[in-house]
Amino acid sequence: AGSQLREIFDKINNLLSGKSVQSGGRSVSVTQHPQGLDFVYYKLAEKFVSQGEEEVASHRDAAFPIAVVASGIWEMHPRVGDLFLAHLHKKCPYAVPFYPALKEGTSMEEYQRMLGYQVKDSKMEEQDHFLKRMSGMIRLYAALIQLRWPYGNKQGTHPHGLNYGWRWLAQMLNMEPLADVTATLLFDFLEVCGNALMKQYQVQFWKMMLLIREDYVPRIEAITSSGQMGSLMRFKQFLEKCLQQKEIPLPKGALQSSFWRS
């Protein structure tokens, strides 16, 4: 509910502002240690990213409440935003977007980690689990760039707004696609913030969508094996429907004004 989200936001904001906060049955404050605030900034940013990786990966609609709190905290405490991006880019290089290349002297295990895979006892996680985590983080990012905390001062601009989403999309289309990964993440990204991008960029946005269909999808097809077609088919159907209807629907789980009255 909206009221619960406000409580969570206020608690985090109070903690970062140096006030005492109740946690685990005791009172804590960042002033208790000279590096207290730096530590909390770092761990909070890490926590936001891992919520994308775990929560949003399992419950897609969770992207919106988590992102709106993260966006508001970022606006009031810019250091959290810098650290959020650092954690996000390390765990999900595709959020940059960046596809790490295998360099001489890098072990296969190290390289798999650079690509965002979890590697335990030299065993790499399965592809569908990996894609699910990457989707969660991209969805959180796509929600964050379009949301603002509704109780902020609203004077300045969004600390990391839709222009970053536009840039991400343009950069993705300038890169050689990766089988499975590119189609999955473009679909996640456009499903979550396509509606907001459409409203902001209008004609330019539809030109971009046509370019994806005419030019980029065939490039993804060319590198996709028959066993990896699922994510590409989903993305193609989504594109076709949006282009036919000249509309990208509001994402499922988007926070309506009534939410804040709950």
TrEMBL record:
**Gene name in the database record:** Gle1
Where does the record place it?
Cytoplasm; Nucleus, Nuclear pore complex
The biological processes this protein is annotated with in GO are: poly(A)+ mRNA export from nucleus; protein transport
Q: Which family does it belong to?
A: Belongs to the GLE1 family.
Q: Which GO terms describe its molecular function?
A: inositol hexakisphosphate binding; phospholipid binding; translation initiation factor binding
Under the heading InterPro entries, the entry gives: GLE1, GLE1-like_sf
UniProt cross-references to Gene3D superfamilies, sorted A to Z: GLE1-like
Question: Which UniProt key words apply to this protein?
Answer: Coiled coil, Cytoplasm, mRNA transport, Nuclear pore complex, Nucleus, Protein transport, Translocation, Transport
Q: What is this protein called?
A: mRNA export factor GLE1
The record's function comment reads: Required for the export of mRNAs containing poly(A) tails from the nucleus into the cytoplasm. May be involved in the terminal step of the mRNA transport through the nuclear pore complex (NPC).
Can you cite an annotated GO cellular component? cytoplasm
Q: Does the keyword Transport apply?
A: yes
Spans traversing the lipid bilayer = none
Pfam families referenced in this protein's UniProt entry, alphabetically: GLE1 (PF07817)
